[in-house]
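Task: sequence design from structure.
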């Protein structure tokens, strides 16, 4: 069996260069149909592809199902949408009939578990992606449930899963909600193929190949896809990454996948697992030079990750697997990955090539209606209201923040639209949006200010394995000039009928300070009184685990912000965001952050607690208490991680030091930390020594009587003490003070 090559593909097929499918003759639909009636009105007897999604159908380029649907439609396929179906039976999945080619299944723009549960694992009762903000319109683990129902609805029809939920669960992953390591979603969903990242390239190729009578099981060579196979085919070279190294002298060019033999693993671990034997060539690469000497090509080499059984049993293996996966995310040098689950192999092809500017322009200029499907009537969809007048100018993020999933999903290479395309979309909003008042709510994307920022050298970019281009410092090969973005802002403001352009996407202020003219332009014209930025923390310990810059950069940006606001004659404020309970954060770190907040006069109304999303590097830290940003061994750096509801709530309480409900918990913690000196009523104190007389504990909380000074029978309400008359001397002194006040 000849190995199929993916990594050596020199350039991808242009997204819109395929010969269009015969159904192109029907032309684009006003809205992709959601019912048989709409299909009849379009003259369709069937759909070629049906997309099942956990979001309400909004035909807007900020909604994934609309983008994929319109891209497939532009290829000539008839695409239907089943949005937020009743998942308790197969009937809702038969609403549009049997698709000719495949079902495409997505949880929606958000992971269904993050959408439905808070960081404290409490059920949310709202859903911004549903009509009238109604919760409960999608199941837990929506990709798995929808895929299984599609299989029940029509036997033998291929199911292709995607969206951020499938993307981040493509290998064995820690599941925060069950507190377990779960298998790849491919196995639980029983899907035939998984597409990860921005999936336009893969999904278009899949559609055309199935239309050409290939079977779904023949499609094994597409970048950005994952699938299950019984074994590694003959002819592949397996690079073993499953050893765990021990401390000692490390060679300067140590390979990130395989480490020296260790002495502290059990014989059982060191013995070869028979379940992982294959007929492929198996070697161990000690360093990159050895790989070159043996002439191992990328196209026929696969990295073996520790098996599901190993990462489930041993958190150190989990951290190691996470590190390897993140080092294999550059499309220019990534190799295929394989991970055994029982008697099957989950195979991940290398990431997709980014879209070119021309391709991205074409994707965003497809005939979107830019509004919800008419079936929703006057229902309000909050997520749509937020982005209805916004313009997405780019994709990707090279920041590499460990708690964020943007990089894992969209990649580190920035994909930018052209200025002309962006301006045309603004004009389209102006001319076609009912009730448009002249304000564009955002020009941005995953970040506000990475548009057109890329590596100065294509060769360096294709060979780079840095996890972040801007941490621990900005790479010297990164183009940081944001003047093209300044020119875009100016051109957008000059369009007739446009009164104001706001910037609402997250701003990388460590990049912004590299171009002071950008900060001036932003502050002078594009801030609506408040600008939200995310330092995330003040202390170097947690910041190093987040891969975020220190507060010195924040201070530089704030100085610029204040200076340019004053020059513009505007009273504007920075609103910093911080994360509580992130791996690597100690109680002392949170205390110091609270003191910084008080010194600077900040009182956070809403606080963000770390949410361990699947596949994030910070989630690997949370689960394994190891640091996958560096080589992992049994004795490598340990990461102290706040776990347990009470500990996480304490860290959130430090962020809301001003809330009386948090004072009892904070008093207890400060005393245990030996910092009772911060309890008092002075300016240098963090919290007062007593509760307000009017304070009532939150409903359902346990009264901490030993710290509030309230008797148990008070139920949290202060009971006035009976005043004692005192001694004769005391009564005399009271009388003197009373007469003095009267005088």
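Answer:
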């Amino acid at each position: 069996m000849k190995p199929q090559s993916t990594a050596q593909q020199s350039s991808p097929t242009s997204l819109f260069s395929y010969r269009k499918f015969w159904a192109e003759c029907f032309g684009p639909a006003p809205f992709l149909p959601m019912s048989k009636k709409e299909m009849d009105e379009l003259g369709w007897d069937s759909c070629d592809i049906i997309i099942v999604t956990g979001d309400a159908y909004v035909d807007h380029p900020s909604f994934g199902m609309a983008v994929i649907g319109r891209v497939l439609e532009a290829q000539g396929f008839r695409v239907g949408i089943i949005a937020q179906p009743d998942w308790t039976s197969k009937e809702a999945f038969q609403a549009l009939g049997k698709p000719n080619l495949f079902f495409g299944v997505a949880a929606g723009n958000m992971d269904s578990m993050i959408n439905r549960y808070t960081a404290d694992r409490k059920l949310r009762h709202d859903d911004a992606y549903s009509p009238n903000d109604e919760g409960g319109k999608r199941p837990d683990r929506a990709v798995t449930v929808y895929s299984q129902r599609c299989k029940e609805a029509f036997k033998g029809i291929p199911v292709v899963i995607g969206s951020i939920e499938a993307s981040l669960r493509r290998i064995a992953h820690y599941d925060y909600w069950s507190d377990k390591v779960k298998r790849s979603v491919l196995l639980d969903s029983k899907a035939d193929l998984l597409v990860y990242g921005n999936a336009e390239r893969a999904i278009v190729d899949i559609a055309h190949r199935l239309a050409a009578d290939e079977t779904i099981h023949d499609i094994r060579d597409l970048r950005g896809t994952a699938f299950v196979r019984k074994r590694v085919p003959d002819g592949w070279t397996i690079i073993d990454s499953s050893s765990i190294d021990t401390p000692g002298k490390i060679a300067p060019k140590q390979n990130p996948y395989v480490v020296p033999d260790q002495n502290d693993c059990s014989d059982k671990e060191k013995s070869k697992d028979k379940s992982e034997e294959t007929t492929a060539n198996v070697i161990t690469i000690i360093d990159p030079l050895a790989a070159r000497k043996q002439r191992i090509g990328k196209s026929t080499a696969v990295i073996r990750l520790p098996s599901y059984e190993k990462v489930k049993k041993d958190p150190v293996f989990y951290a190691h697997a996470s590190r390897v996966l993140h080092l294999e995310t550059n499309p220019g040098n990534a190799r295929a990955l394989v991970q055994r689950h029982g008697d099957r192999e989950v195979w991940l092809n290398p990431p997709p090539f980014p879209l070119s500017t021309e391709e991205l322009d074409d994707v965003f200029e497809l005939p979107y209606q830019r509004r919800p499907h008419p079936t929703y009537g006057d229902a309000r969809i909050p997520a749509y209201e937020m982005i209805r007048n916004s313009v997405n100018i780019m994709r990707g993020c090279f920041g590499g923040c460990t708690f964020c999933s943007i990089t894992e999903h969209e990649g580190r290479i920035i994909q930018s639209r052209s200025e002309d395309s962006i301006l045309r979309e603004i004009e389209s909003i102006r001319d076609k949006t009912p009730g448009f008042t002249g304000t564009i709510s955002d020009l941005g994307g995953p970040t506000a200010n990475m548009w057109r920022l890329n590596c100065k050298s294509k060769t360096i970019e294709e060979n780079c394995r840095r996890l972040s281009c801007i941490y621990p410092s900005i790479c010297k090969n990164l183009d940081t000039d944001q003047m093209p973005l300044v020119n875009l802002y100016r051109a957008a403001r000059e369009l007739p009928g446009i009164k104001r352009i706001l910037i609402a996407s997250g701003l990388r202020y460590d990049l912004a300070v590299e171009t002071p003219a950008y900060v001036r332009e932003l502050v002078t014209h594009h801030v609506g009184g408040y600008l939200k930025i995310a330092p995330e923390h003040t202390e170097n310990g947690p910041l190093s685990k987040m891969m975020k810059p220190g507060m010195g950069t924040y201070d530089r940006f704030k100085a610029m912000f204040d200076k340019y606001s004053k020059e513009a004659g505007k009273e504007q404020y920075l609103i910093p965001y911080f994360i509580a309970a992130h791996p690597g954060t100690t109680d002392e770190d949170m205390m110091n952050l609270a003191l910084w907040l008080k010194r600077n006069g900040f009182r956070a109304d809403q606080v963000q607690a770390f949410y361990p999303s699947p596949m994030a590097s910070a989630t690997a830290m949370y689960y394994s208490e190891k640091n996958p940003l560096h080589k992992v061994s049994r004795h490598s750096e340990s990461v102290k991680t706040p776990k347990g509801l009470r500990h996480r709530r304490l860290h959130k309480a430090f962020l809301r030091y001003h809330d009386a409900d948090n004072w009892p918990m904070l008093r207890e913690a400060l005393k245990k930390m030996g910092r009772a000196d911060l309890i008092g009523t002075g300016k240098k104190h963090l919290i007062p020594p007593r509760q307000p007389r009017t304070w009532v504990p939150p409903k359902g909380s346990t009264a901490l009587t030993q710290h509030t000074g309230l008797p148990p029978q008070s139920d949290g309400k202060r009971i006035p003490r009976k005043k004692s008359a005192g001694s004769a001397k005391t009564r005399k002194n009271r009388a003197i003070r009373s007469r003095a006040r009267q005088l």
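The longest strand covers residues 573-580.
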